[in-house]
């Protein structure tokens, strides 16, 4: 099987409480690498030292688009120092999304950021949600993105949960981008009645109007414990040239913990 890492957003509260202790637990569980979602005030050199101490690879980092646009040179320097090969755009606000008047300019900005990464020996990736599956002249916005920005400036980081929620088969979508899929996000979920809830993004802290999402309608699950066909997804990832599988669970389900969910995911994957 491909090497397996953990997106540290999955244990973000533990990271904030005990950065080093969390890395130690992640390594103890059997994860081989990590993907960052913030450094919690640690310097790049501190982080690199801790990864070396616990034998964890620095796979990649999720960095907000606004942070990249503000100072991409600093972003590149930070994550090169840590040892990351990949940097990913994790999420974009509404004004940057497919279907908006500024989407062509968004793609132009991404192209420029990708060129900077490439020139520095790094790889820029895009981590999708489901809003990229809106149609633009009959094509998905995500497909327009990858048709517009060349592979040398942008690779995929397909989030298999959001591909599914967007209406596509995750394994087939990975195969569609064969050769452009260095990192694949393994994410599982369950929907109560099969209908996507209106307040879905409240579950990942992105809706701020005070309304709560219905966790009974949609629940993030440990990998292998939801609706996803993980063996097919993993096989497609391997055949499409992926280098890493990254586990991500945005929130533990009720009654579980961040560490508990991460452990269930890696235990399932090691059982295959």
Task: Please outline the helices and strands.
Blueprint: E1 4-7, H1 12-17, H2 19-29, E2 33-36, H3 44-54, E3 57-62, H4 65-70, H5 72-82, E4 86-89, H6 103-119, E5 123-127, E6 135-136, E7 139-140, H7 141-148, E8 155-157, H8 160-165, H9 170-176, E9 183-186, E10 188-191, E11 218-221, H10 230-239, E12 244-247, H11 258-271
Parallel strand pairs: 1-2, 1-12, 2-3, 3-4, 4-5, 5-8, 9-12
Antiparallel strand pairs: 6-7, 10-11
Helix pairs in contact: 3-5, 9-10
What is the CATH top level name?
A: Alpha Beta
Within the largest sheet, what's the order of strands? Answer: 8-5-4-3-2-1-12-9
Report strand %: 15-25%
Continuous helix count: 11
**Form type:** globular
CATH topology: TIM Barrel
CATH superfamily: Divalent-metal-dependent TIM barrel enzymes
Structural class call reads alpha/beta
Query: How many strands in all?
Result: 12
Could you write a compact summary of the structure shown?
By secondary structure, the chain is α/β, with parallel strands linked by helices.
Structure description:
There is one protein chain. The chain is an alpha/beta fold. The protein has a single domain (4-192, 222-271), classed as TIM Barrel. The protein is built from eleven helices and twelve strands. Strands 8-5-4-3-2-1-12-9 form an eight-stranded parallel β-sheet. A two-stranded antiparallel sheet has the order 6-7. A two-stranded antiparallel sheet has the order 10-11. α3 (44-54) links the parallel β2 and β3.
Relevant terms:
single chain, 272 residues, alpha/beta, two-stranded antiparallel sheet, TIM Barrel, 39% helix, eight-stranded parallel sheet, 11 helices, 12 strands
């Amino acid at each position: 099987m491909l090497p397996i890492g953990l997106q540290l957003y999955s244990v973000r509260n533990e990271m904030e409480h005990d950065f080093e202790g969390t890395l130690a637990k992640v390594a103890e569980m059997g994860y081989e690498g990590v993907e960052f979602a913030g450094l919690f005030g640690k310097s790049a050199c501190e982080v690199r030292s801790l990864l070396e101490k616990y034998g964890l690879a620095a796979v990649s980092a999720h960095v907000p688009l606004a942070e990249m646009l503000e100072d991409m040179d600093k972003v590149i320097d930070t994550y090169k120092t840590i040892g990351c090969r990949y940097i990913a755009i994790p999420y974009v606000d509404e004004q940057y999304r497919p279907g908006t008047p500024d989407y062509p300019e968004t793609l132009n900005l991404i192209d420029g950021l990708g060129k900077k990464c490439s020139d520095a020996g790094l790889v820029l990736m895009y981590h999708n949600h489901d809003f990229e599956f809106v149609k633009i002249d009959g094509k998905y916005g995500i497909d327009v993105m990858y048709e517009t920005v060349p592979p040398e400036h942008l690779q995929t980081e397909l989030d298999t949960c959001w591909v599914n929620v967007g209406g596509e088969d995750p394994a087939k979508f990975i195969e569609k981008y064969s050769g452009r899929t260095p990192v694949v996000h393994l994410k599982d979920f369950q929907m109560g009645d099969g209908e996507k809830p209106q307040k879905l993004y409240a579950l990942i802290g992105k809706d701020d109007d005070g309304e709560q999402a219905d966790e009974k309608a949609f629940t993030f699950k440990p990998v292998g414990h939801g609706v996803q066909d993980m063996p097919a997804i993993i096989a497609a990832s391997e055949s499409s040239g992926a280098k890493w599988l990254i586990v991500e669970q945005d929130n533990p389900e009720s009654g579980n913990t961040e560490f508990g969910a991460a452990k269930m995911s890696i235990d399932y994957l090691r059982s295959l």
